[in-house]
Amino acid sequence: MSTINLISVRKSYGHAEVIHGIDMDVTDGEFIVIVGPSGCGKSTLLRMVAGLETITDGEIKIDGKRVNDLEPMDRNIAMVFQNYALYPHMSVFDNMAYGLKIAGTPKQEIGERVTTAAKMLQLQEYLSRKPRELSGGQRQRVAMGRAIVRKPAVFLFDEPLSNLDAKLRVQMRLEIKALQRELGVTSLYVTHDQVEAMTLADRMIVMNAGTADQIGAPLEVYNDPQSEFVGGFIGSPPMNFIPLALFEENQITLPKSLREQIGEDASNIKPTLGIRPEHLELCSERQGIFKGQLRYCEPLGAETLIHLGLSNGALLTIRQKAGAYTPETGADCFVFFDPDKACLFGADGKRLRAHDTMHYEEVQ
Known about the structure:
CATH 2.40.50.140; 19 strands; 6-stranded mixed sheet; disordered C terminus; 2 domains; alpha+beta; Rossmann fold; 5-stranded antiparallel sheet
């Protein structure tokens, strides 16, 4: 059984706090992806779990044991880095076996573990080669094999696919997920790529400026974002954001269900409407909720992205199936959406609910 507990984990460099208190319980065998933009603190958090960064405050437990003051080698973890970190003068076999040799593992057991991992990773025919004789994907497999042979309690991945081309990243994504499921090892995986996060994670931590903006299953985070940041970061193309003031300026009647959420006086809330591109539809003027001008289209094969310019200068993106009617560039277009698919965010960027708006002024 391998669990990880993060309890009010904080990290500061001098007076600058970079991790602002992260709390999370990772269950045995769970695949957790830590995702966010550059500089949000995701790699720092991973390195604190690994023991490569000291913890300013809080606790980290692995299998119920406090590891704050333990060296990396004593935490029973294995880490896969972005740059592979292979020894160039050693063969694939020796790279995978090196950690076991240092630990004093019997020679026969080393051979068995390396052979088993090599079969799992389809590296049998490359065991005598040096890293320079391998492709990027093969080098990443060797780095993973080196972690697997140690039989750790926890796998830690620090952007392992960022050096690979797009096609190879897709392939390696599938292999990492299948391998993790087969081994059942609890894993933390850091990436800035939200597609990786969506496809790999059992649950994800969406990091924003050192805080966990939202923790949840990928589709839960996608369909029910708790902040404007999460809605804009998770999803490609991202969620559309429309200030409700734009509806008022253009004398557009807001759907009843949204008006009820906002309440009669929204002056202190300054709400913004968030809507996914696939939940917007082109329609007739009579059905339209608001209007925009078609700027350009992006045909992507199975679907087309339509970009409309709004009166406030913002762009609105609509995703529709390929072959659907598309107006000419420059044409006025009317747009419809299901209010139940929309999200409302307050002036602080946090998600509003029907019951939130009643007390919004009180919590400011």
